[in-house]
Amino acid sequence: VRFEWSDKCEESFNELKTRLTIALVLALSDDSGNFVIYNDASQQGLGCVPMQHGR
Question: Residue ranges of the domains in the chain?
């Protein structure tokens, strides 16, 4: 399959970057609460996100 990066792809990617950097997606942790760790791994990378209920 041939990969093509069109003007529409570039526009969508820039919109996504803008929304992710403007939205409040980070919060301070509350040490009195429990954490849930979500992780994922593949041959290409590794990701991990600690989350708290209601945060």
Answer: 7-51
State the burial class of residue 52 (Cβ atoms within 10 Å of its Cβ: 0-12, 13-18, 19+): middle
Q: Which two tokens stand for residue 22?
A: 């403007």
Average pLDDT in the 3-7 region?
95
The candidate with the shortest Cα–Cα distance to 35, out of 15, 54, 20, is 54
Q: How far apart, in whole angstroms, are the C-alpha atoms of residue 35 and residue 54? A: 11
**How many residues are present in the chain?**
55
Statement: the pTM of the whole predicted model exceeds 0.70: no
